[in-house]
């Protein structure tokens, strides 16, 4: 996805979307539906296609992954699908990533 990042890398029992190992930066590009974007879903919403889990169950699973990565020295950056599709936001996050990689 980005220069300096490798896609779909395993860290322990988890697969991360994008990894820059030298800087210990993980990018997770969370799909609004699959990760139940809190801007769009309430905790008790049941999300179809995910094994019928509630949004809260999905968030808990995501928190466990983030905690594991953080506890192992990784800086985890979450980017929501709907934000990434926004041209202004995309420019802003790409600029911040460039600064982190320097």
What does this structure look like?
35% of the residues lie in helices and 28% in strands. It contains three helices and six strands; from the N terminus they run βββββαβαα. A four-stranded mixed sheet has the order 1-2-3-6. A two-stranded antiparallel ribbon has the order 4-5. The chain is globular, with a radius of gyration of 14 Å.
Task: List strands and helices in order, with pairings.
Blueprint: E1 6-11, E2 14-20, E3 25-30, E4 46-47, E5 53-54, H1 55-71, E6 75-80, H2 81-84, H3 87-101
Parallel strand pairs: 3-6
Antiparallel strand pairs: 1-2, 2-3, 4-5
Intertermini distance: 17 Å
Strand content: 25-35%
Radius of gyration computed on alpha carbons = 14 Å
Largest sheet composition: 4 strands, mixed
Which runs of at least 5 residues are low in confidence (pLDDT < 50)? none
The mean pLDDT is 92
- Derived structural class: alpha+beta
Strand order of the largest sheet: 1-2-3-6
């Amino acid at each position: 996805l980005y220069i300096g990042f490798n896609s779909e890398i395993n860290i322990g029992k988890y697969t991360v979307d994008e990894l820059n190992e030298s800087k210990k930066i993980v990018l997770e590009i969370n799909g609004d539906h699959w990760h139940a974007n809190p801007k769009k879903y309430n905790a008790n919403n049941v999300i179809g296609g995910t094994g019928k889990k509630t949004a809260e169950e999905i968030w808990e699973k995501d928190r466990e992954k983030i905690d594991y990565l953080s506890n192992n020295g990784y800086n985890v950056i979450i980017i929501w699908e709907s934000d990434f599709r926004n041209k202004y936001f995309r420019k802003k996050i790409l600029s911040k990533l460039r600064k982190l990689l320097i």
